[in-house]
Amino acid sequence: MNSEKAVFLNPYRPGAGHMPPYLAGRHHETNEYLKLVAQTTILENMVLTGLRGVGKTVLLDTFKPLAMNNSWLWVGTDLSESASVSEENLAIRLLTDLSVVTSNVLVSHERISKIGFINTEEVIKKKLGFDFLLHLYKSTPGLVMDKLKYVLEFVWRCLQSQNIKGLIFAYDEAQNLSDQAAKEQYPLGILLDTFQSIQKKDIPFMLLLTGLPTLFPKLVESRTFAERMFRVIFLERLNKEYSREAILKPVTDRQTMSPVMFTKDSVDLIVKHSGGYPYFIQFICKEAYDAFLPKLVAGENASVPLTEITRKLDTDFFAGRWARATDRQRELLVIIAQLENSGEEFSVQDIVELSKKNMEKPFSPSHVNQMLSSLSTVGLIYKNRFGKYSFAVPLLGQFIIRQQKI
Ligand SMILES: Nc1ncnc2c1ncn2[C@@H]1O[C@H](COP(=O)(O)OP(=O)(O)OP(=O)(O)O)[C@@H](O)[C@H]1O
Ligand SMILES: [Mg+2]
């Protein structure tokens, strides 16, 4: 091993939102996105959805520079903590994010007088920062949506002269936004109504929402027009060719001089075992790389230690999620994992029938319905638009079967 090889570090990056050393595939999704970015009047917004760990966040990260190169401004954040956000909080969220890109924009004297600011001189010295936007929001009469719309329209009038194509509002983990009828809070509805209304007025503010597969049904449930408002891109696992690239490119890149190289058999094994899911590819490769390194240095043959890696994956990735389920939920999940179609989609009926066969105390349809709904809230299951269910965590079924054998 020469000195250049000695400093080569394990390149793989299993971790939420960690950019992989090589982002494989995703050309089709990127092209779809570029079509949306080419719109002058926003007729379609984007939902980027898919299972846990399939690569939504890192793809979203690559979209940002593409937008900015096309003269768009990029606004947004991660909504992980937003489960019970109120309408007012949502509005503040949008203003906060917006102010990051507008805070250097100067507002003309004329414009400020038009909107009737009391202390004109003071405001003029400031720019279009958060305080200004909040003041504008608060001093506008009406409901949250009226105020928000007014601010957004105002901001666009100020930006128009700046050679900007528009603004992209990019929100990750957007499945966390929820309307709450009991509290009479409809933040999701407000978001959709506001953007629909300003887009009708030809203001080029585009929504780009990312999240688990529960996201789009949630949007449609909140406003049926969401069906027409969004182009939905469902990120799938990587096909075999792209999986191979994700595994090999980080170590075959000539400039990097990796001391570890995977054989064809190893690559095939990783492709198969990861199911093409990006997080699993990164995870297995990282572990395999560490296992290969000392063997190759010692001049020995190396192979992927699959049993050990699987055990580590079970502990690091699956166990935490499994631990959050109650005993009865686990019983239900075991039945689901035993279904032939557990890796694809299944119905309440499929579960009820198998539970009659395999259990002393089988589940009734209403019980299954109710439990699937709570499992969906904790992000283990999702219901698609056709009323069928799937695991929201890739390869969860295989993990559950492994647990049964321990
Ligand atoms: N196209 C890709 N090629 C190679 N690795 C990828 C690719 N996409 C994502 N990854 C890797 O997969 C892992 C998960 O990516 P990311 O966090 O973006 O997924 P996610 O869909 O946002 O997950 P979550 O639903 O948990 O938010 C990361 O380790 C990332 O480096
Ligand atoms: Mg993510």
User: Which regions are unreliable across 5 or more consecutive residues at pLDDT < 50?
Assistant: 1-5, 120-125
What is the name of the CATH topology of the largest domain?
Answer: Rossmann fold
The percentage of residues in β strands lies in 5-15%
What is the N-to-C succession of helices and strands? HHEHEHHHHHEHEHHEHHHHHHHEEH
Structural summary, described in words:
The chain is built from 19 helices and seven strands. With 406 residues, the protein is of the alpha/beta class. Adenosine-5'-triphosphate is lined by residues 13-20, 23-26, 50, 52-58, 212, 246, 278-279, 281-282.
What would a concise description of this structure say?
By secondary structure, the protein is α/β, with parallel strands linked by helices. The protein has helices spanning 3-6, 27-37, 56-69, 87-102, 109-114, 120-125, 130-139, 144-159, 187-200, 215-222, 226-229, 240-252, 264-274, 278-297, 306-323, 327-338, 348-358, 365-377, 396-405, and strands at residues 45-49, 72-78, 166-172, 205-211, 230-234, 381-383, 389-391. The chain has 3 domains: 3-19 and 238-320; 27-234, 3-Layer(aba) Sandwich (Rossmann fold), CATH 3.40.50.300; 324-405, Winged helix-like DNA-binding domain superfamily/Winged helix DNA-binding domain (Arc Repressor Mutant, subunit A), CATH 1.10.10.
